[in-house]
Amino acid sequence: MMFLERCYVMKAFRVSFYMFCMVLFAVCPAMAAEELIGEWLLDSADSGGVFPDTSGYGYDAVVNGASYDSGYGGFYFDGVADDADGADYLDIANAVYPYDFTKDFRITLDVATAATGWRPFFSRRAGSGWQSGDWFMALNNGVITGNGYGVGTYGPGTTIVNDFFWHSIDMWYVSDTDTIYCNVDGKEINEFETSPFKNGTPDNSGHIWIGNHSNYQFFEGWIKNVRVYRVVNVAYNPSPEINSFGNAAGTQTLSWNSPDAAVTWYDVYISTDEELVDNRDASAKVASYASQNSIDYTLLGDTTYYWAVDCFYDPDPEDGVTEQVLWEGLSGDTWNFTTVGNYAVNLTPVTGSEGLSIFTQFGWNVDIEADTYNFYIANSQAELDTAVPVSFTAGGTEISFDPGTLELHRTYYWKLGVVRDGSEYFSSVRWFRTGGVETLEDFNAYATAADVREVWTCPVYQTNELDVGPEFSRYALVVPFGTSDVTYSRTYETAIDFTGVPAIAFEFLYKSAVQGDNPESFNFKLQDESGGVIAEKTVDSVDDFITPEGGSVEGEWHWVYISLADAPNADQVKKMTISVPGQSVAGDLRIDTITLRTPYCSGAIAGDVYGDCVIDIRDFAIMAENWLECNRIPAESCFTYFFQADVE
Length: 648
Description:
This protein is mainly beta. The strands form nine sheets. Strands 1, 4, 5, 7, 12, 13, 14 and 18 form an eight-stranded antiparallel sheet that branches. An eight-stranded antiparallel sheet has the order 2-3-6-15-8-9-10-11, with no helix packed on it. It is elongated. It folds into five domains: 2-231, Jelly Rolls (Sandwich); 236-339, Immunoglobulins (Immunoglobulin-like, Sandwich), CATH 2.60.40; 345-435, Immunoglobulins (Immunoglobulin-like), CATH 2.60.40; 438-597, Galactose-binding lectin (Jelly Rolls); 607-648, no CATH class. This is LamG-like jellyroll fold domain-containing protein. It comes from Limihaloglobus sulfuriphilus. InterPro entries: ConA-like_dom_sf, Ig-like_fold. Residues 1-32 form the signal peptide.
């Protein structure tokens, strides 16, 4: 406890990073503008083995073994490579973090440790082992030092920092003199005149490691507030921020910082095509601007923009000749940002979907709430152009919409208009196709009879069951019958709309003509909330059901179709009922698979070109469109030879 109390007291009195920067710049060589290009605060637990980079560049670190210590307020590294979690370190891969450390840079971090020996806290390494271009900064028995491949040890410093207290380390590199400078707690500077950064392979191809080096030297203690800055010689600190989302559309101000006061001219490039900006294509150039660090530009919504600023100066402003020379000979970085969407995104159903439910719900996302939405839907693109939309309002950014019951086996075209500030922003036209069958009840989906009883109710003296018999090879609703009337029903929580549905159908098993194998008759009906009948059918003979083609009546499952054409209150279906009147001999009725379906075609009709079991104008239209077309070989026989039809 004394140890922790000592550490907390120290934290209260340690010199802040920003205060010691004032001392730093007063005593070190003049430094150009800086840009934060990596920040790992290590002030909380990682998320799924990753700790975020909060610099705005998104160079997230992969966490290996190290973990957050809430008592110390930083990440703890155990300094051991062969324990249960292996070496403790954070890894930022070169593919993620490609900065060239042969150029000017600066690193700051806070450390707390009591360990002796070599304890690397920050390293850059090209691969496994120790090779050309590798270097690291470390504590050696508590003092700041470092090492580079082919250079050996540089330093050491003199300030002891392995006393369990938090210490702020500030280390920067000046490439012109190939010199490293180091500051500890803002009060001492160590100058390392030999650095590893220009030795061997230029060090811009390796990983950053925090708390480790080359798999055989490891930091022991706590680290937090790791930051990497680059000394910039190009425009920097863009607004909007790099990789930012949710930026407002419309006319907005884009701004940047200049690398030097001598810069007097800027060329600005903006495009939705990154390659055009990278190549400084003339089509991406907005304009050239004198002595200003911002421009106003009109942005579209839902768009990712790429942009860059090149800086120019006049090397001799007193000679009376205006020159524009690229600052340091360097083109600016390419930045990007994404605007807030005026358009809906993530629209569902996905365009091109087949076999969709007629009860499909539509959905989409918006970046900000719309004033209203206009939903357009039709059965063809031509009809969609003149369709009257359904207009509605909805709060939030995740929107769902119920268009009502769709028709079976139909192709639909639809689009969405987002209305905001008097303007309507249309989605692309999308299409999907509904299936020809909508399953309302599949008893194979129930696991037990108890599950059936939660959905299908009956009087207490009756017992409904779910059963499968070896001769029937499927689960089904078993409705026992006897001398008393039997009624089974399923009631929906909310009424269902069957408008436009041609038929409802179900399967039942006709066992045999033996009395008791089947009821003499049974009834199926749809009802509204008040009990009114919407549609019904009483099955009392083999003429009331459809026998499978080529099958016998006995021992087969058969379909019963009930018409919903002109059914009253078809949009208010609340209940399905199966009833069997009292029978002289007891038995059971087996019901399965209740569906909404397109009409059943009992057989082919000559001339049904359209294929809908009806001869009408649509068949004639197809024939007329192809009238006198001929695809015979040889073609000369088309109108000189006539087949005799195989009819009597």
